[in-house]
Every structure is written in C-alpha cells, then in structure tokens.
Design a protein that fits this description.
By secondary structure, the protein is α+β, with helices and mostly antiparallel strands. The protein contains 13 helices and 16 strands. It has 3 domains: about 130 residues, Sandwich (Jelly Rolls); about 150 residues, no CATH class; about 150 residues, Histidine kinase-like ATPase, C-terminal domain (Heat Shock Protein 90, 2-Layer Sandwich). A hairpin with a 2-residue loop joins strand 15 and strand 16. Helix 5 runs antiparallel to helix 8, helix 8 crosses helix 9 and helix 10 crosses helix 12. This is histidine kinase.
Length: about 500
Amino acid sequence: MTTETEEIRLSPCEPGRLTPAELKTLFLFEKLTDDQLAWIADHGCTMRVAGGGLVLREGDPATQFFVLLSGTVALSRRVGQDDVQTSRTEQRGVYMGATNAYLRDDGVPRSYLGSMRALSDSEFFVLSAEDFGWMMREWFPMAIHLLEGLTLGMRSSQAAIGERQRLQALGALSAGLMHELNNPAAAASRATGALRERVAGMRMKLGKLAKGKVPPDRLIALLNLQEEVIERAAKAPVRTAMQIADLEDELGDWMDERGIGNAWDVAPVFAQGGIDTECLLEVESRLESPDLLDQAIHWIGYALETEQLMSDIEDATSRVSSLVNAAKQYSHLDRSAHQWIDVHTGLDSTLVMLSHKITDGGIKVVKEYDRSLPQIPVHPAELNQVWTNLIDNAVQAMAGSGTLTIRTYQEDERVVVSIGDTGPGVPDGIKKRVFEPFFTTKPVGEGTGLGLDISYRIVVNGHGGDISLQSRPGDTRFLVRLPLSEPASA
C-alpha cells in the first residue's frame, strides 16, 4: 500500500547513460535516426530502484518518463483505502510516468495517474518530462497534433455528453416529479371544489331545519347526533369494494322505504363512510319526528361527505409533501456532500422519482431489504445517481413488463445492493464491456453509453466499492458493494 510519507529512492546506476546503439534495442526508439538517438542518449540517464521500492506515486507531479530496462514492476490505482493492482510486467522497454508530457500547457497541473512499485531490483532509462515533451513536439509534430486532437476531443466529448446526461437526469427527475405531483394536486383541486358545494348545501339544510320550527333541544340533539355519526364513520372498519356495493343497496332500500329524496345519491355517501342501517335506525328513533328525517339524513350526508372530502384533501396534500420530501432526499440539496446514511433511504426516494416509469409500464417492484444493515459513509446525491442509472436500465430492459427486485444484505465488511430484472439479459460477449465509456446496447439516440461508466466511477473511485454484473435470460443483476468503513478520501 502506498502512503504519502513513503520515500521514493531512485539512485544512479551503471553505465549511467545508454549509447545510441543500446537505445536502439528498445522497441520505443528502434525507428529513430542516429541523431535522434544521440540526443536522447545525452538527455537521459539510468536509475535503479531496490525491490519493494516505490518508483512513482499516484497524484505526485509527473516530472519523469520511465523506460524499464530490467526487473519486474507493478502499476496500481488507489481505490478508497486500497491499492488495486492494474498491471504487472517485466517486459523490457515498457514505459510509464509522464506519458502525456507532450500535450500543450493548458494550465492544468499534470500528475501521475497511478503508482509504480519495483517488485524486484529494477533499472530504468529516465528522461525528464520537459525533455520528453520537447522531443515529441519537435520530432513528431503531425502525430502530436493528432494525439492532442484525440485527447482533447475525448475530454470535450465526455464532458459534453456527461453534461447532457446530467441534464437528461434532471429532466427525467422533473418530469417524474411533475407527473407524480399532478395526480394529488388535481385530486385536491377536485375535492376542494366539491367541498365548497357540500358546505353550501349544509348551510341550506341547516336553514331548512331551522324554518321547520325544530325545538332548540331537538336541534341540539340533532347536532350531537351528527357528531356521533361522523365519529362512528371515522372508526368504521375498512370494507372491500364488494362489501361497500352491498351496503349501498341495503341503505338505498332503507331510504326508499322511508321516502328519502335522491336516496341512491345519498346512500353511497353513507356506505363509503361505513354507516349501516342500524345507525340510521338509531337516527330515526332519536329524531322523534318523521317529517324531519329526510332533511336530517341529507344534512348528515353532507357532513359525512364533507369529512370524506377533507380526508381526500389531507391525503392529497400529504402525498405532495411526501413527494417533495422524496425529491429533497434524492437530490440532497439540503444536506452535506458526505454523510452516514441508511442505504434504503436513497433506494426508496429513487423509486419514487422513477415511479411514473415503473408503474405506468406495469412493472412489479419487489423489495428484499435487510433493515438491520448499519449506516454507511457515502456521498448520497452521487449514490442516488447510481441507483437511477441501474433502475432505469432495468426498467428499459424489461420493456414495460416484468419484475424489478431490489435486495440488500451484508457480505463481510460491505453492504451489497442487488438490482435485478427479468429482462432478456446481457449477452456473454459484451458483459465485459458494459462499464466502458460510450459503450451502449441501446439504439442510436437512446443512450449515451456513460450511465454505467459514471456509476462505476462513483462506486469504485468515489466510494472504494465494487460493482459487478451477473446476467442470464430472465435474471440480470447489478451488484453494488459499498464498504462499511469510512473511505480514506472522505
């Protein structure tokens, strides 16, 4: 494992310099002219590193260009708290270090992209980054222009497409949120309009009751009766749609027998509130006046419907509040960039944001959560982007029909999130390429090829975790493994 305090010890070794003839034996220089070989011989030197020693460290300024002469070396990249070995070689002539020194100076400090350690006593031919950059620009100007164009073009393309994907993600989030907000907002609007009509109706019924010369004690009793009916409705057991329909018929018949006006309009209100004929018989007996029964039933019906409408408005506004809260959790606009979280919170908020794609397509969601999992240290907004990419890909793979399974569990010192679908699967020939930038199996215009690449970099480079694919027809799973401990970079 490399550390910032480990000393790098490069020492000169014999013969100190290589002759043009010796340089020509290295495949990197074999096509150069004698004058070019002589220039390189004058500007380079030979250096030695003992076995186990660090040759260059990731993140340090890229000041030297190395060509291996003898020995075995290993290249590695830092991932969280670990050094991941990317290659190991003993091939004479391989090069590493300041390999991009020939690029024009754009003001961005250049550093080593990885670390190199000598696994055995190793010798190198070394050029300074400045000399190597001058040599490349002066001797191979056309090649440098092509390489610069390729490098800068790839950077620009990736930045532009990355920005495009972020805008698409924002658009998808906005569209999904607007789609989800529209239903409860419309329901609240409809309920408010109906509530206004019912309140007006209640005022009219109250006026008619008063004109009916109802004794004050009887009117008070009627008001108390109304409150009792409303309270009974609030405590009524939940009925199925079939049970409610049967109750409507029973109530309608009861009201028809007593000459209640518009009985088949009033009966559904009482049935929805869970009021049965036993309750209506009690109302009838306590009125002690058959002439008031019609107006009392309608007045109580208005009160019941008013309560139901207010409950609808409360449910709709609560739904709006829940959606806004889910959006805040998804984007983490009001939280610090890095924190300890329950991984299920981000998964649930992502499902809410994508619910219009999931439910509209008829996809079943199965959650197999291990709620005993400990909190983990992450960048929540970045991790939610990973869940969005993986869930969205799963939904698209199933083409509107299938089962989305999200499972969480602990594996050694890591939390594992499995996102699976029942789509056709990923062919064996391209499984290894799914995390490559710009690689996509989607039709032209439907994918950037960066979703899984971005997800990989967030999980692996940003969180010290791992992401892998298991796939066969009808069972495709992306497994995201995140460490339980605090990453060194956090």
